[in-house]
Design brief:
- The chain is α/β, with parallel strands linked by helices.
- It has a domain at about 15-85 and about 140-150 and about 160-165: Rossmann fold (3-Layer(aba) Sandwich), CATH 3.40.50.1000.
- About 30% of the residues lie in helices and about 15% in strands.
- It has seven helices and eight strands.
- It is globular.
- It has helices at about 5-10, 45-55, 70-75, 90-100, 115-120, 135, 150-165, and strands at about 15-20, 30, 35-40, 60-65, 80-85, 105-110, 125-130, 140-145.
- Helix 2 packs parallel to helix 7 (about 150-165).
Length: about 180
Amino acid sequence: MVKENPTEAAKKIKMLVFDVDGVMTDGSITYDEDGKEYKTFNAKDGHGIVRMNHAGFITAIITARNNGTVQHRAENLNFTELYQGYKNKLPALEELMQKYNLKPENVSYMGDDLPDVCILERVGLACCPADAVKEVQNICNFISKHNGGKGAVRELCDFILDAQGIEKEYIVCEGKGR
């Protein structure tokens, strides 16, 4: 399927969905000696999610892994939805679209590897970080200039806000000036 121009596709987006490993992180998985897993997230990516929520977009994570760190990050950023443990991610996407009465063209998804292809082929704005595998890059209509965990999520958030003509509001600490 030929993908629409990314700017035109971005104008229709109402929901942003993200994979975690390789998208919201750099793909590294670190374990301590007891097997506890650690992930590192990018603060600027996180602020992009906060701004999308503030602007009224639905934000979601669909990930194959099940991890407390991801749960904590999703809660911290107020993601609208979190789906963990989904090796086949398409049923989760279908459930989200039905729940929010959205069409595929209203959804953007950012993924980086082969398990994401089934969703990327379905959505209106298929997105990936710069370091995604070639098979993913070949089907995306938005390829970030940044690698996963290094600003790709923020670039996508800013791109959608710009395409829709939504002012990027500055969120400041309560009681403080700009």
